[in-house]
């Protein structure tokens, strides 16, 4: 009788643990679905109207970074973290257009940090390679730091010489630091 009671308690305990894990997984899914909806909403306004909901993007970025920190092994965490980096780039570029130097620098710095974090946490994912490109864009297009952009492209080329993006990045290296008129002139010569 004592053994039967122990078996029943063990089964009940395991069932309770399983229900707890299922509830936790459901909560994580709901949180990630909510985050994805927030990103899609912010991004769609940007894509369709060219308008940026700064508050919505910032809220998404903070929540996505917290999600990735809290659930680093969840399959959706890398995508959320990467989107947070892209969102920070969008905010930095927007601030740049508006002449808000402080917001540009703050968001660019945050984007760079997120892409670094992504590569550290998820080095084997394909998006980790794209972090070189994203950082180069931040340095080149947003901060005007062509040397750092060049360094990012060269790091990618050296680490992944046979990657399909390598020739593209080699071409980008020839364009870094040139003005719009220089680029137009160069493209006219190539026609």
Tell me what you see in this structure.
This protein is mainly α. It has a domain at 27-122. Helix content is 84%, strand content 0%. The protein has eight helices and no strands. It has helices spanning 2-49, 54-70, 77-98, 101-121, 126-143, 146-159, 166-175, 180-189. Helix 2 packs antiparallel against helix 3 (77-98). The longest helix has 48 residues, at 2-49. 25% of the residues are buried. The mean pLDDT is 83.
Secondary-structure blueprint of this entry?
Layout: H1 2-49, H2 54-70, H3 77-98, H4 101-121, H5 126-143, H6 146-159, H7 166-175, H8 180-189
Helix pairs in contact: 1-2, 1-3, 2-3, 3-4, 3-5, 4-5, 5-6, 6-7
Please give the count of helices.
8
C-alpha-based Rg, rounded: 23 Å
Distance between the termini: 91 Å
Sheet with the most strands, sense and barrel status: none
Query: Class by helix and strand content?
Result: mainly alpha
Order of helices and strands: HHHHHHHH
* Overall residue-averaged pLDDT value: 83
Given as residue ranges, the uncertain stretches (5+ residues, pLDDT < 50) are none
- Percent strand equals under 5%
Number of strands: 0
| Oligomeric state of shown chains | single chain
Residue share in helices? over 70%
Mass-distribution shape? globular
């Amino acid at each position: 009788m004592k053994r039967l009671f122990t078996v029943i308690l063990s089964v009940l305990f395991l069932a309770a643990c399983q229900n707890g894990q299922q509830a936790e997984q459901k909560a994580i899914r709901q949180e990630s679905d909510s985050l994805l909806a927030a990103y899609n909403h912010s991004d769609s306004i940007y894509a369709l109207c060219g308008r940026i909901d700064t508050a919505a993007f910032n809220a998404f970025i903070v929540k996505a970074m917290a999600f990735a920190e809290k659930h680093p092994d969840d399959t959706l965490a890398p995508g959320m973290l990467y989107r947070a980096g892209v969102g920070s780039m969008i905010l930095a570029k927007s601030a740049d257009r508006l002449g808000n130097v402080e917001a540009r620098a703050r968001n660019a710095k945050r984007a760079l940090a997120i892409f670094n974090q992504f590569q550290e946490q998820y080095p084997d994912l394909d998006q980790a390679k794209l972090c070189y490109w994203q950082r180069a864009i931040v340095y080149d297009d947003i901060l005007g730091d062509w040397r750092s952009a060049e360094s990012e492209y060269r790091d990618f080329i050296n680490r992944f010489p046979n990657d399909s993006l390598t020739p593209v990045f080699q071409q980008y290296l020839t364009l870094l630091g040139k003005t719009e008129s220089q680029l137009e002139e160069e493209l006219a010569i190539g026609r």
